[in-house]
Amino acid sequence: MTISKTIRTAAFFLTVTTAAAFAGPIADFKAEMADAYGVYRVALFATNTGNAEKSNQAIAGFTAKWTALAGHWSATPPPHLSEDADWNTTLTEVAGIAAQAQAKAGEGDLAQSHEILEKIRDQISELNRRNGVVTFSDRMNAYHEKMEHVIGTAYAGEGAAWDAIADAAVLAYLAESLALEAPAAYAQDTAFNQSLDGLRASVSALDAAARSGDADSIAKAKAGLKKPYSMLFLKFG
Asked: Within its chain, how far is the Cα of 190 from the centroid?
C-alpha cells in the first residue's frame, strides 16, 4: 500500500469513527430534548384550554425532565452545541421560566402561566438559531408567530382585505414548509397528515374569506386558525 493510500485510508476511518462518536451523544441529546419538549407541549395546551390539574402536572413533569436534561448535559454539551457560550444560561433560563409558570398555575392563573411558558419556546428556538440548527419545531414556531400576528390583526379599513390575502399567503407558505421539513416518520404518519391537512384547510378558509372582502368572514376564518395548529403542535410540534 502506498503512503498516500495509507493516509487516505486512515483519514477515512478517522472520519467514520469521529462521526460515530458524535452520532451517539447527539442522538441521545435529541431524544432527551424531544421527550422534554413533548411534555412542554402538553403544558402549553393544558394552560391554554384551562385545565388546571393537567397544567400543574404537565409543568411539573416538564420541570423534572428539564432538570434531568440539564444534569446530563450542562458540564458537557452535545457536540453540535459544544461551542455555544450561552448554553448553561439557556438551561438556567428555561428552568426559571418553568418555575414562574408553575407558580402562576398553582395560583389558578392559567392564562398568565401560558404566556410565561411561551418564553420557553423562544429560548429553545434561539438556542437552535445561535448554533445553526433548524428543527421541525422551529418551523412550527415560525408558523405560530405569523398565526398570532394574523389573529391579532383587525383587518379594518381601506386595503385591509389585501393585507389579509397577503398574510394568508405567508401562512400557506409556512404550512407547506411544515410538509417539506417534516421528519420522515411524520410524513408516513396518517395522524400527522390529517392534522396538517386540517391546518392547510384553515389557511385556505382565511384566504377565501380575505378574497371575499367580508370583514365578518375574515374574523371567523381567523378564529378558526388556532385549533388546527394546536392539535398539530400538541402531538408533533
From this structure: 20
HSE on the CB side for 159, CA within 13 Å?
A: 1
CATH number of 1-133: 1.20.120
Instruction: State the pTM of this model.
Output: 0.79
Residues 19-44 pLDDT 10s: 344 458 899 999 999 999 999 999 99
d(CA 147, CA 153): 10
SS3 155: coil
186: its cell numbers: 411524520
Angle at 118 between CA 92 and CA 224, to 5 degrees: 165
CATH number for 136-237 (one of 3.40.190, 1.20.120, 1.20.1740, 1.10.1040): it is 1.20.120
